[in-house]
């Protein structure tokens, strides 16, 4: 029964996400697995069991999961031990779906019945299953009793399973943790418990963090145990358990750091020292601010005196974490001495880690209150990193390759914190290309790309050298040529200003058009579009649409070519050219964007809806059209200037807009259009939850550009007299900076500052006079300056590094599209909204979901009589609820009232609130048709056909 309802309710979910996949829906898939479970062959049963986790990932809703786990519990109850082992694996792999089991009592009853078996293996498997589902049965007393009883078992397998279950329940249940604490201590101290079992019992103490009293008791017990059990295994396990316990309680971290440093100094065994340093690294990442200054001194002293490289390296790793965030790190501390001693160490791993610590120290000090770093420290840091780069390229071993990646990471951090160092560091990396071999040149080019991404001006002095390197790529083997071509082209595009010089453009195009690898040409065109070199992108994209087999890819490439062609046209606009030429050029760009938008819509598929790309290109086309309307309005001053009595008419009517004549009305419409575009960019910004930071900044600048243009027109033409002797730089942007998680924060782009400066000068010259050609010319120049700024297509336009999707389901649901849900007017509809959050390969790369906001509203399709409206305060429902997803699942219930009979449309929409508190309109939106009826109203007579006449009686009709 449950399986049937699951299939009818969620079959549409699979069709949405797996539109191109021909797999079965939830109902048929569950029926097939159920058929496999009832098979008489063990192999088919096992195959059906192991396919359940994939079914849960595809249809992660409670009805299906509840039905599936009940079936698995039946298999566990009546099956053999091998089938029970398979069920155990399913429960362990599906941990995040366990809380969706609705019939927990029945599920536990079927599983728990096996605990009374005479087979110790069956009891052990049962204990492990109980431990795996501890999150939903943590307070069941019968389970607690069974685990305590099994801890006294003489069977080794059952005892290990009981220890596993005890560890799982101690992590979930405070009652169990407090009750089992003394028994675990007795078993550890008892002589009857084998040594290997004691080592497995000690880690249970890491979960005794539910209250301070129990945590303190356990800590004291473990600390007292250390002198009594000095064996290496006991010391390592006990110290690690105490470290994990301290990381959860937090208040014991300073004492645990002291204890670990004591063993680091006093215990001569290297294995214990290595484990101590590993635990210190764990605690440092958890709470670096809880370190004391003398703790840092002890660690630095240990690094200076230890003769073992592996210990020195592990200790430097701890210092690296401290240097990133700890407030006690200063340039006067002993940390500086340790770094300078080891950044030129003969062991390249140690020198790399010491240089990393030095880099983190410099970057951390730059973020301090003063924001300044000692010049000597910075020079020492740069010298250490440059020396390390030189050493890394001398050999081609895997260790040197790994160290080169770390050192290039240091270069990237330095360039981000100190942009003035970018040029010198880029020169250093480039000089190593002649001596690098194997894969190392590619890594060096990637390092240069990182420098260019953080500070593009750092590559300007290398643009001609990079172009020469690009010409040498054609002599490389074919398997290495593609990566080098794409990287070098990206570096050339980063280093060169826009537009690219003609000879450099010709060199790039000639080299890439002769290359038979068309994928390389597309990658280069994509990079050119991202860096604003649209001339290169247009020429590369011209020949690619005819070289792909897919119709959708064909239109996708055509749309890219049209977009880049439109941007190339905009580069020909100049503020000093006549207005009619700028209008013609802008009209051509608008035409290219219209063609590109049409082609982009033709490239949409169910698998790749291209929502962001379509909205982004449409907004860009609307923005260009808004500028075209603005330029057309500016030319109105010449054809239709304000009448001579315009000022008198404005004084009489009180409408200042009449002072400017017809051009004022048109410009007022342009201002409204720009503000509307700003709101649309804001909506696109809020919908781009998975976008990278650079994409969000680009959208923010486009939104600010719309507001700036509206502000310019408002200042110079519409409300000129209000801005006399005013600061036009004081613009209320009202644009939240989603890339930083706060409002404002970054300086305006240079072109915005130039526009505002020009407006300030024009306003000073006009001195509040009536509209003249000076103000209109300034508006035209401001528009041209913004249009000439090359558009950098955001990375999210081509590639999504993070993927987050929300799927909703409504209960009750419609049986069909035209069959609404029926509800009486004197009752309320209980609507349940449940959903799941589906992630891609890198969940939470840029931002993560903290809460989900569910908005439910209803609207009536039936007109309510006027005399009845006064009896109801609110005919439409508008409800909102914030829910926190648990294991990517959330649900909420709403009560909706429909006081008047008729048809209603219920809309449920989800939005996301991230960990920074920002709201994102991610969707989706689902609708439900509801028909309310009055149960007391007389039912209309039903027109039924007359019953058929009774059959004629025969002699056999009675029998």
UniProtKB/TrEMBL annotation:
Residues 937-952 have a biased composition (Pro residues). It is found in: Cytoplasm; Nucleus. Keywords: Cytoplasm, Nucleus. One of its GO terms (biological process) is snRNA 3'-end processing. GO terms for cellular component: cytoplasm; integrator complex. Residues 30-533 form the Integrator complex subunit 7 N-terminal domain. Residues 807-920 form the Integrator complex subunit 7 C-terminal domain. It holds the Pfam family INTS7_C. Residues 534-715 form the Integrator complex subunit 7 helical bundle domain. InterPro entries: ARM-type_fold, INTS7, INTS7_C, INTS7_HB, INTS7_N. Residues 931-959 are annotated as: Disordered. Its main location: cytoplasm. Belongs to the Integrator subunit 7 family. PANTHER family: C1ORF73 PROTEIN, INTEGRATOR COMPLEX SUBUNIT 7. This is Integrator complex subunit 7.
